[in-house]
């Protein structure tokens, strides 16, 4: 489903500060699989996720999604692609504290042109899937860390995209909430989602629902 070919991301190219954040990455990710990108801080995990999501462009190399070359999309095309195909779960949730759960979860649907009735149906279904429906009218400000995470998961699911990208998803969670997160990821996999998790949390290592573990070291894949 995702094919990455000879990918490089260079910052400060052709200066004395030139730096390879990613170097010669080749990777294939199968539809419906769960991949864990591990590696120490600064190894390139977030940069790789961000290039797969089309938020950043590589310096060279290609990323294909279902045989379509997404890494060379113009920006307007990239944001449409993300809105339709990708759910993103961030370490610090990136929710709007002054809005309630339901409004936060509905945000990704706004650019997709759905009617209010369609938005209500999709939001309700995502809230139930992420087990946060009972807090739908609560302000984010009043939620616990685990509840914020479940709200962020609902927001990542609401567009029914096939690809779920998670950047250090358990970094702000305690052990029990991290275990809950793992259970939700297993459910998403059962629903056929393709999942990529960038994390150095050992909770993701050697898990039977993980199909591929990739270690990044200084921007390269370490076999
Ligand atoms: N916009 C940028 N400009 C310059 N250097 C950058 C930029 N973005 C990332 N880098 C560098 O690229 C390297 C990889 O960063 P990245 O955020 O991908 O690492 P990471 O493995 O996700 O780390 P962490 O676990 O701390 O989030 C780091 O050395 C970082 O400083």
TrEMBL record:
One of its GO terms (cellular component) is plasma membrane. Residues 2-223 form the ABC transporter domain. SMART domains: AAA (SM00382). SUPFAM superfamilies: P-loop containing nucleoside triphosphate hydrolases. Keywords: ATP-binding, Nucleotide-binding, Transport. It comes from the Bacteria. One of its GO terms (molecular function) is transmembrane transporter activity. PROSITE patterns: ABC_TRANSPORTER_2. This is ABC transporter ATP-binding protein. It comes from Aliarcobacter cibarius. The lineage of its organism: Bacteria, Pseudomonadati, Campylobacterota, Epsilonproteobacteria, Campylobacterales.
């Amino acid at each position: 489903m995702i094919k990455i070919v000879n990918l490089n991301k260079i910052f400060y190219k052709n200066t004395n500060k030139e730096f390879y954040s990613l170097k010669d990455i080749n990777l294939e990710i199968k539809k419906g699989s769960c991949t864990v990108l591990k590696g120490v801080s600064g190894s390139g995990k977030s940069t790789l996720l961000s290039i797969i999501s089309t938020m950043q462009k590589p310096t060279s190399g290609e990323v294909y999604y279902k045989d379509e070359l997404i890494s060379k999309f113009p920006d307007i095309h990239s944001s449409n692609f993300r809105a339709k195909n990708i759910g993103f779960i961030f370490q610090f949730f990136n929710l709007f504290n002054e809005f309630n759960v339901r409004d936060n979860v509905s945000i990704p649907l706004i650019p997709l042109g759905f009617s209010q009735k369609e938005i209500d149906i999709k939001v309700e279904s995502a809230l139930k899937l992420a087990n946060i429906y009972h807090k739908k009218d609560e302000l984010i400000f009043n939620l616990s860390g685990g509840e914020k995470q479940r709200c962020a998961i609902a927001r990542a699911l609401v567009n029914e995209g096939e690809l779920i990208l998670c950047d250090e998803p358990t970094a702000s969670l305690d052990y029990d909430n991290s275990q809950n997160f793992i259970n939700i990821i297993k459910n998403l996999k059962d629903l056929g989602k393709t999942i990529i998790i960038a994390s150095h949390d050992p909770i993701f290592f050697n898990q039977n629902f993980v199909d591929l573990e990739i270690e990044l070291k200084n921007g390269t894949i370490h076999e």
